[in-house]
Amino acid sequence: MDFFDKDDCPICLMRRKWAHEFVDAFLYEGVNDRSFRKIIRDNGGFCRRHAYDMMAQGDPLAHSILYSDLIGDYLKNIDAKKKKGCLMCDKEQEADKIMYRAFMEYFINDEPFRQKIADTKCCICRPHLKELKDVFGRNKSALKDLYAVQIDNLTRAKEHLDEIVRKHDYRY
Known about the structure:
By secondary structure, this protein is mainly alpha-helical. The chain has eight helices and no strands. The chain has helices at residues 10-28, 34-43, 48-56, 60-76, 87-109, 111-119, 126-136, 140-167. The longest helix has 28 residues, at 140-167. The radius of gyration is 21 Å and the shape is elongated.
């Protein structure tokens, strides 16, 4: 639960950690998996964001294997139409669904988890709050509780920000 000790959306933090670990594992082992490489070839590579994320994590050998394979396929089928997609985006979406469901289950069933969220400064960002709203679905009371915690946390954050503004007012 160290994701709640930061001043950032805990789901954004979990997602970034998951993505970093997935890319790391993929570059170490996944490049040798022919089924992964076929998916990547069929998609024509990665989206821009994931290509840069992988490049930032290094591993020139893994990149050489991947891009040699992609370029070789491109040279053989230069006019082939590739479907739009990115293996990393697909894996992220799968992981997101799992994270949202886990968050909802813990929020509903685990009082220490719920209390940890209420006691911290963190707030859930708008996109993730919207996704959680969809996941919570019919459980209106749990969603109402989540919104109450979010409103409390945002109200505290606004009070702190207003105090900073007040202290920088020349009339103070």
